[in-house]
Amino acid sequence: MVSSGSADWTPGEVAVSGGQLAYHRTGGDGPPLVLSHGLTDNGLCWTRLAEALAPDFDIIMLDARGHGASSRVGPGDAVDPVRDLAEAVEALGLTRVLVMGHSVGARASAGFAATFPDRVRALVLEDPPLVPPMTPEARARRLQTFREQVARFRSMTEAELRAFGMRQSPSWDPAEFPAWVQSKRQVDAEALPLLNSAWQEDFRCVRSPTLLIHGESDRGSMVSPEQAREACELNPVIRSVRIPGAGHNVRRENFADVLLAVRSFLAEV
Question: Is residue 58 within 8 Å of residue 88, measured between CB atoms?
Answer without folding.
Answer: no
